[in-house]
TrEMBL record:
Enzyme class: transferase
Species name: Pseudomonas fluorescens
InterPro entries (alphabetical): Diguanylate_Cyclase, GGDEF_dom, Nucleotide_cyclase, Rev_trsase/Diguanyl_cyclase
GO cellular component: plasma membrane
UniProt protein name: diguanylate cyclase
Gene3D superfamilies (alphabetical): 3.30.70.270
Organism taxonomic ancestry: Bacteria, Pseudomonadati, Pseudomonadota, Gammaproteobacteria, Pseudomonadales
Catalysis: reaction(s): 2 GTP = 3',3'-c-di-GMP + 2 diphosphate
EC number(s) per entry: 2.7.7.65
Amino acid sequence: MAVIMPATDSAGAAVVAQRILSRLQQENITHPGSPFGRVSVSIGVATGLGSRLEPVLGLVEAADAALYGAKAAGRNGFNVHPADVTSGG
């Protein structure tokens, strides 16, 4: 799933990611197959200016790399890609 947030930098996207995590934790949905015992989510955050993306798939790849970083850090969290994925940015 992707969430597109126009005019949002990585700090703003991190706030949204934390809200998603918090809201899902509040729901406390049982998941016996999860190491947490409940449904959890790992989120990868990447940002870029649409008119300058190099290429558009670069943003998806950066978000995917950030997602795997969140999983490597123990899952049920989020990770922000360290760079703005734009040409010269």
